[in-house]
Amino acid sequence: MSTAFRFTDPPAPRAATGRVAEVYAQLAHDFGIDKAATFVVLSSAPELLAPAWALMRESLIAGAGSRTGKELTAYGVSRANRCPFCVSAHTVLLHATGDHALAEQLARGERPENDVHARVLHWGEHTRVPGADLHPYPFPREHAPAYLGTAFAFHFINRIVSALLTERLLPGNAQRLRPVRSLAGRSLAGTVRRTAVRGASLPLLDAPPPGPSWAAGTAVGPAYGALREAAPAGGGLLDADDQALVRRTVGGWDGSHPPLDLPGVPDRRERPGARLALLAALAPYRITDADVTAWRRPEHTDHRLVRLVAYGAFAAVDRIESALTLPIAREI
């Protein structure tokens, strides 16, 4: 097993065929990172790989608005979710945009000097709180679908990464060194600064629904809708009582990080599947070998583990998205 992955051993990317190979090709071209571990880990469940990639691509990469602003949103979401892998990745990607000083201010834990940047960062962090008032936007209203899509994409991706990848973005955690961050960012600059064609990922999806009203008329909508259809299907790995527990617990979540005693999360010896799903939703960085071992059975393949984690991860995304209080569709 690669040291990048926890609990799963995804298929070798070089052996990918069909839709998975198409995603990898588009990922390399549009993201600039060949076979990024963030998405390779989802390849054990190909039905999740394409919509997760499509949502990130159509919002962060091809969506309307400043790439720097959307990287700040992704950074803020990742910091709020305590996902060091993604925090490091978006620091590097800010170097790729050419915003070297901004990237290093964040790496030092400082507030951005530019007030607009600071407000976008705060906005991204604030999206973790269900029902938070996200208005006024720190960006033009017509860019809201891309910024919201970026936020929701990373609320999902952060949870997948925290649950199933190690914290090491680069071997030996080399991204902790400023010259390495800068060099890695510069190597991606050509791709990051290139204009991506909107909607190019949608042919990778099978008849995606139109998506939510806040993304109406954009490629973000079908991408979000496809992920909203695919990820909850993992709930079928739980019985009705466990699904009800997940819905009830996540439905009452206020965006806070749970204390050490994990109230509302069952013991791994009693309800291991529900525990994994709830940890994926609320504190994926708290999933341990013991949690996965307690759930594993011969039939519980990597495919099923990824689906179960994705179910919990999207339960949190759905809690945040469904709690939006702004009449976004009428504003943009």
Uncertain runs with pLDDT below 50, 5 residues or more? 327-332
Oligomer designation: single chain
**Helix fraction by DSSP (H/I, runs of at least 4):** 55-70%
- DSSP, total strands: 0
Helix/strand-derived category reads mainly alpha
Count up the helices.
Answer: 15
Shape: globular
Radius of gyration: 19 Å
Mean pLDDT: 94
Sheet with the most strands, sense and barrel status: none
| Amino-to-carboxy terminus distance | 46 Å
- Percent strand: under 5%
Q: SSE order in H/E notation?
A: HHHHHHHHHHHHHHH
Could you walk me through the main structural features you see in this protein, from its secondary elements to its overall organization?
With 332 residues, this protein is mainly alpha-helical. Helix content is 55%, strand content 0%. The protein contains 15 helices and no strands. The termini are far apart. The relative contact order is 0.15. The C terminus is likely disordered.
Summary?
By secondary structure, this protein is mainly alpha-helical. It contains 15 helices and no strands.
Question: Topology, please?
Answer:
Layout: H1 18-31, H2 37-40, H3 46-61, H4 67-80, H5 84-96, H6 100-107, H7 115-126, H8 144-164, H9 178-192, H10 220-230, H11 240-251, H12 272-282, H13 289-295, H14 302-322, H15 328-331
List keywords for this structure.
332 residues; mainly alpha; disordered C terminus; 15 helices; globular
